[in-house]
Amino acid sequence: MRLPRALGGWGVAITGLAGDARASQPLNYLVSHGLQNDVTLPLTKALIAVSLTVVLIIGLLIVAAILRRPGLQPVAGARLEVGPEGGGLSWIWIGVGLSSLVLLASIAWTVAVLGQTVHPPSKPKTRIEVTAHQWWWEVRYVDENPALDFATADEIHIPAGEPVAFKLIGGDVIHSFWVPLLGGKTDLIPGLTNESWLQADTPGTYRGQCAEYCGAQHAHMAFLVVAQSPQDFRRWRDSQLQSPAAPQGEAAQGAQLFTMHCGSCHSVRGTDAGGVLGPDLSHLMQRQSLAAATLPNDPAHLSQWVSDPQAIKPGAYMQKPELTAAELAAIRAYLGTLR
Amino acid sequence: MIFVVFTEGALFAYLLFSYYYLAVQPHTPGSFPEGGPPEFTLAAPNTIILLLSSAAVAWAQFGIEHGSKWRLVWGLGAGTLLGIVFLAVQYFEWAEKKFSLPSSTYSALYFVVTGFHMAHVLLGVLMLAALTLWSALGYFNRFRYAHVHIGALYWHFVDVVWLAVFFTFYVTPHLGLSA
Amino acid sequence: MSASEYERTPGIGDSVRHPEIGERLKRLWESEPGLRGWLTTVDHKKIGLRYIVTAFAFLVIGGIEALIFRLQLSWPNRHVLTPEQYDQLFSTHGMTMIFLYALPILSGFSNYLWPLVLGARDMALPRLNALSYWIYLFSGIFLYAAFIAGFGPNDGWFNYVPYAARAFNGGPNIDFYSLGMVLFGMSTTVGAINFVVTFLRMRAPGMSINRVPMITWGTVTANAGNLFAVPSVSLAFFMLWLDRNAGTHFFDVPGGGQPLLWQHLFWMFGHPWVYAIVLPAMGMVSEALPVFCRRPLVGYTAVALATVATMVLGFGVWVHHMFATGLPPIALSFFSAASIIIVVPSAVGVFAWIATIWLGKPVFATPFLFFAGFILLFTMGGVSGYMTGSLPVDWQLTDTYFVVAHLHYVLIGINVFPVVGATYYWFPKFTGKLMDERLGRWNFWTMFLGFNLGFFPMHVSGLLGMPRRIYTYADGMGWDWLNLITTVGGFVFATGVLLFLINVVISHRRGRPAGDNPWDSPSLEWATTSPPPPYNFAVIPTVASRYPLWEDRMPRSVRESATEAGLVLDHGREAVGTGPLDAQPDIILKMPSDTIVPFVLALMLTVLFVGLVLHWWWLAVLGLLGTGAAALVWLWPRAELGETAEAKSG
Ligand code: HEA
Ligand code: HEA
Ligand code: CUA
Ligand SMILES: [Cu+2]
C-alpha cells in the first residue's frame, strides 16, 4: 500500500477511471460492470458534480463576502456603526430560484433512472434464492424442476449478459445484499421476502458485501459473484448437481469424522452430512474463498479455519472443534476431495 | 397542559399507527383480531360511562365558573366515581379475554394500547380525586380554579382518546379490517 | 373580575435612579448558597449552565470513544479492540452524541439565554426546567452505568430489530438502552413544553411575534417538533422492552411481529430529531452572525418561515432512511422527491447568511470565524444529504462511509461549530470575561482543518465502498490510506476541541473583563449586567423593534424600546405574562420559589427505571409511589402562587 496508489485511489474515486477496479478497489461503485449501475452511475456522477459546484460557489461567495471590504478588528465594548435593516432579499430569491431548478431537474432524472432500474429489461431465466445468516450467505438455485435445485454458499455464479432474479430472504437478523460494481443494495429482512435483480455486463469476479449492521462479524460478511459466459455457467451448474466422488484412504476416515463432528451443521450432497446451520460444503474446493469471502480458499487457510474459526471470525457460529491434530488432518484431506 | 395533551395525543397516534400497520400485514385467518372481532357487550356501555363522567366534570367546571362550589365538588366526585367504574369494567373485559399479553401480535397490541389508556384513566382518576379533595377543602372559587381547568382538560382528552381506541379496536374489525 | 394580586396595576420604576429595586429583587430571587441551594434552584441561568457543562462532558466522552475506535480502523486488520468492544463503542458514541450531547447543549444555551433575550425574569415553568435537567442527568448516568459495567448499547444508535431482540442480543445491553431512552424522552418532552409555553407567554411587552429574536425561532420550532416526534421513539423503545421482557410480539417475526414497524417508528422520530438538533444552532448563528456583520440579518421573515418549513417537511421524509428495505418503488420515490425538496428552506438560510456578510462589514472575531465556517460546512453536509436523497443513488451510498461523512458534516458542521462559536460569543454574558482571541484563532483553524482532514476522506472511502459499522477491514480494498488520514484528522480535530476547553478554563480564571455589552449587540440579554443578576432585569424592558439596543444608531429605526424604566413587579417572585401574538401584557405571573421537589421527582423516576431494568419489582413500586407522592406535593395548590382562593386577599 504505497502512497501513490492511495492518491491514485482518490483520482479513481472522483473520476471513475479505474484500470481494473475489480482487483484494486473491489467495492468502488464509481466503476460499473452491471446494467443497474450503468444506468445509475451517470446520475451519481452528475450529483457529485452538482454538489462540488455548489460547494465551490458557496465557498467562493463566503470568501468574497468576507474579503470584499476591509474587515474590522474586534474591540471590546466599542460602539460601531450599524447598517440599515432590509435589502439583500434578491440574494435569497436568486439563490433559491436557481437551486430549485437544479433540484427539480434532479428529481426528474432520479425518476427516470428509477424507471430503468426497478425492473430488468427482460424476464430473468436464472432464479436464485439468497438467505442471509449471521454471518454467511446461503445460496439456492431454483428450477421449475425441483430435481435440478441445489444449494451452495458465499459464492454466487451467474451468467453474464442476462438478468438474474434474486429472492432475498432474511434468515435471522437484517442483512443487506450488495454487489457495488453491479448495482445497489436490498435488505434481507426476516418475515419479508424482497426481490431484486442483477445483470453483469462481462464475465468476471465481483465482490459483494453485507451492508446492514448485523452483529459481531458484520465486517466479515462478504461474498463473491462470479459472472461467467452462459456456456461456462451451464457447465458449472451441472457440476454442482453431481455428488462428490467417494473418498479414499485418509480422506475416507476423514469423511466419517466429518459426518460425526461437522455433519450436524454442514451438508455434503450424497452423504449423511445434512446439517443446515452452516454453509453447504458439497463443492467446497470449487470456491475461491472461505468463511464469507474472508480468507482465500487454499490448503493453509482452510486448515487454519477448520482448526480455529474463532481466531479468524470471533463470535462466528462455528466453534473450535475438539479434535486431535491427526483427526483434523483427516478431515482436511476429506475436504480436499469435495470438488 | 395543552402541550401535554398534544404530545400524549401524538403518543396514541403512534400506538394506533402501530395497530393499523400490523393489522394490514398478512395474517393467518382468525388471528387478527385473535378470537374474531371483539364484542361490544362491555365496551359499548363502558364508553357511555366514560362519556357521562366527562359530562359530570364539564358540569362541575361550569359550576365553578359561576361560583358554585357545590356543583364543583359533586361534579368532580361523580366524575371520579364513573372513572373508577370504567376501570372496573375494563378489568372485567380484560379478565374475560381468552388470550394473554404474549399470545400474539394482536394480544400485545390490545393489552398495550388499552393498558396505556387505562394508565391514563387511572392518572386522571387520581387527579380528579385530588381535585375533589381540594374543592372540598375550599381551595377554589370563581376566580381561582386553574387546577380544575387543567385536570378537566386532561380528563376530556382521555375520553376522546378512548373514542379513537374504541373505534380502532371494536369498530374497524367489523368494517372488514381483520384476517 | 375583581382586583387581586395578579390583576393589580404594577408600579413603574426606573432602575438607574432607584438601584434599591435591584437590592429588593435580589433578596427575592437569589438561591440559597451551599448544597441545598444547588439542589433546589430553579434559576434558568444555573440550569442552563449545568446543561451546557454536562453536554460538553458528554461530547468529550463520546469523542474519546471515537478516537479509540479510530485507532482500530486506522489500518487494515488491527487488533486494538474486539468486535464486541468496537460495537459497544460506536453505538455508545452515536447515542452519546445524538442524544446526550447534541440536543442538551442547545437546550442549555436556550435555557440560559431565552429569558434574557425575551426580557423575562425566568422561563415560564421554572420547576419543570429543573426537572428536565435532573432527568437528563440521571438518564445519562443510567445509560453510562450500563456502558461502564460492560453492557453498553451494541446495535448502533438506531438499534434495529431483530438484532436488538432477546433472541440475538441476550445481555441486558438493550434493556438499559431502551429504558434509558424512555427516561431521556421524558426530559426532552418536559423541556420542550417549557420552551413552547415560554415562547408564547413570556416575551417582554411589545415584543410581538415579528420582533422575537432569531435565536428563539430555531428552538421553539425544534421543541414543538419534539413534542410530536419523541413519543414515537419512546413508544418504540417501550414496545421493544416489552418484547424482550414480557414476551410480546411487536417486532418479533416468529410471533407475527414486524421488524419494519421499528424502523418506521424510529425514523418518524429520527428524522425530525436531526432537524431538532440543528435548528436551534442555526438560530444562534442567525442571532449572532449579524452582530459581527454590523447589520441586521437579511430576510428575517424568510429565515423564520424557512425554519418552520424545515421542521414541517422534516416530518415527511423519514423513509429516506429505509430506501433499501424493499418497499414499493412508488412509495419510495415520493420520499425521495420530498428529501430533495427539503433543500429549499435550507437554501434560504444559506443565502440569507451570505447576503448578511456581503452587505455588512465583518468584524473578524473568533465567533465570526466559527459562523462563517459553519456556512461552508453546512453546505458540504447538506449536498451529501441531497445526494443520498436521490433513491437510486442512495441504493449505492446508503450504509457506507459516505453517510458517515454526511452525518458528521451536518452534526459537527451545524451543531458543534455554531455551539463553539456561540460559546465565544456568550461567554462574556455567562462570566463577565472575554475568551482569549489569539487562542481562539488557533482553536478555530485546528478544528476547521482537522475536521476536514478527518471527515472529507470519508466521502471517498464511502464511494470506494467502505461499509459503515465494520470493526475492521481487509487489506487491498483501497481504503487503508484514507482511513489513516481520517484517524489523523480526527485527532487533530480533537486537539482543536482541547484548545477550546483550555481557552474556556483559562479565560474563566483570568480573562479580560468584558463589560456589559462587549460585542455591541442589539438584543436584550446585553441590556443587563454580565453576568446577569438572579432576577435578570430590575424592571421589565419594553420592546418596540427587533433590535432594541441598536435603535439609537440604526438608520430608519424607531427609538422607543426602554430597558431602564418599566414594570417593577416585586411582590414576591413575579413575571409578566404577555399575549402570544402581540405581546401585550395581560397578567402578573407568580413564579415558584426554589424547591427540592423536581430533584426528588426525577430521582424517584430513576429509581422506578432502575427497578424495571433490574427486575427488582419492589424497587420499581417504590419508585412509582415516590414519583406519585412528589407529583402530589408539586401540584398541591399554593396560595403564594395564586392558585387557591385565599390568595384573593392581596
Ligand atoms: C444533523 C442534522 C442533519 C441535517 C440538517 C440533515 C440534512 C439532510 N439530510 Fe441527513 N442525516 C443525518 C442528519 C442530518 N441530515 C444523520 C444523523 C443521518 C444518518 C443517520 C444514520 O443512519 O445513522 C442522516 C442520513 C440521511 C439520509 C439517509 C442516508 C442513508 O442512510 O442512506 C438521507 C437520505 O436522503 C439524508 C438526507 C438529508 C437531506 C436531503 C438533508 C437536507 O436538509 C440538506 C439541505 C441543505 C443543503 C443542500 C445545503 C444548503 C443548500 C444550498 C446551498 C442550495 C443549493 C443546493 C443544491 C442545489 C443541492 N440524510
Ligand atoms: C455530534 C455528533 C458527533 C460528533 C461530534 C462525532 C465526532 C466524531 N466521530 Fe462520530 N458519529 C456520530 C456522531 C458524532 N460523531 C453518529 C451519530 C454516528 C453513528 C453511530 C452509529 O452508526 O450508530 C457516528 C459514527 C462515527 C463513525 C462510524 C463508526 C462506524 O460506522 O463503524 C466514525 C468513524 O470514524 C466516527 C468518528 C468520529 C470522530 C473521529 C469524531 C471526532 O470528532 C471526535 C473528536 C474528539 C472529541 C470531541 C473529544 C475531544 C476531547 C479531548 C481531546 C479530551 C480532552 C480530555 C480532557 C480535558 C479530560 N463517528
Ligand atoms: Cu450481515 Cu451485516
Ligand atoms: Cu433523515
What this model shows, in words?
The complex is a heterotrimer of chains A (339), B (179) and C (650). Chain A has helices at 3-15, 21-24, 35-67, 89-117, 230-241, 249-261, 299-307, 309-312, 325-335; strands at 126-133, 136-142, 150-153, 155-159, 164-170, 175-177, 186-188, 193-198, 204-209, 222-228, 289-290, 295-296. Chain A is of the alpha+beta class and 339 residues long. A five-stranded mixed beta sheet of chain A has the order 3-2-1-5-8, with no helix packed on it. Chain B has a single domain, classed as Cytochrome c oxidase, subunit III, four-helix bundle (Four Helix Bundle (Hemerythrin (Met), subunit A), Up-down Bundle), CATH 1.20.120. Chain C is 62% helix and 4% strand. The two termini of chain C are 14 Å apart. The chains are: A alpha+beta (339), B mainly alpha (179), C mainly alpha (650). Chains in contact: A-C, B-C. At the A-C interface, α1, α3, α4 and β8 of A face α4, α11, α12, α13 and α14 of C. The complex binds heme-A (2 copies), dinuclear copper ion and copper (II) ion. The site of dinuclear copper ion has 9 residues of chain A, from loops.
